[in-house]
Amino acid sequence: MKSLALLSMVLAVLASAQSLDYQTYKTTVEPIFLKKRPTHARCVVCHEAANYPFRLEPLDKGAATWTDAQSHKNFEMASHLVKPGAPMASLLLVQPLAHSAGGAEFHSGGRQFASQDDPDWRVLAAWVKTEH
Ligand code: HEC
């Protein structure tokens, strides 16, 4: 029984990893984690090597962005915080979204996205919906 449960867990993880597209992530989603938003700190400032589930790889000294190998790790990590096809059931999208727009009640990093119409939030949603 135990091994069956484990097997189904592994299959579920594989299935979700498969439906999310890495190239879309690398070119559209990841730059958002590095982008400076007015009145907010960048995601990477707090989430680089963080002890929270949303943990970005530390950038190499002086590097403006991640290497491909680091991005693959970030992709794996981010994939665990989203539910393919369901942006509003995805922690990655709900936590930084304003509460009034359907987001979480509290995020130490603030209301990074004021509404679901924020262009960056829509990029995250498009990735999760696997529209590519
Ligand atoms: C000022 C620091 C800070 C910034 C900037 C920040 N966060 Fe956070 N974030 C936190 C902290 C601290 C937590 C831990 C739980 C909490 O307090 O909300 C967290 C939690 C989260 C979580 C829930 C999973 C977890 O690791 O606990 C997600 C998802 C998240 N942040 C996404 C983002 C995104 C996306 C951005 C940028 C658009 C961002 N955060 C910017 C500090 C920050």
Structure description:
The chain is mainly alpha-helical. It has one domain (2-128). Helix content is 47%, strand content 0%. It contains six helices and no strands. The chain has helices spanning 2-19, 22-34, 43-47, 68-79, 91-94, 119-128. Helix 2 (22-34) crosses helix 4 (68-79). The model has no long low-confidence stretch (mean pLDDT 91). Bound molecules: heme C. Heme C binds next to helix 3 and helix 5.
How many DSSP E strands?
0
Element-level helix/strand string: HHHHHH
Q: How far from one another are the termini?
A: 38 Å
Q: What portion of residues is helical?
A: 40-55%
Count of helical regions: 6
User: Can you tell me the residue ranges where pLDDT is under 50 for at least 5 consecutive residues?
Assistant: none
Give the count of structural domains.
Answer: 1
Shape: globular
Bound molecules: heme C
Biggest sheet descriptor:
none
Strand content: under 5%
Class per helix and strand makeup: mainly alpha
Question: Rounded to an integer, what's the Rg over CA atoms?
Answer: 15 Å
From the structure above, extract its key features:
132 residues; mainly alpha; 6 helices; 47% helix; globular; binds heme C
Describe how the helices and strands are arranged.
Blueprint: H1 2-19, H2 22-34, H3 43-47, H4 68-79, H5 91-94, H6 119-128
Bound molecules: heme C.
The site of heme C (HEC) has 19 residues, from α3 and α5.
Task: Briefly say what this structure is.
With 132 residues, the chain is mostly helical.
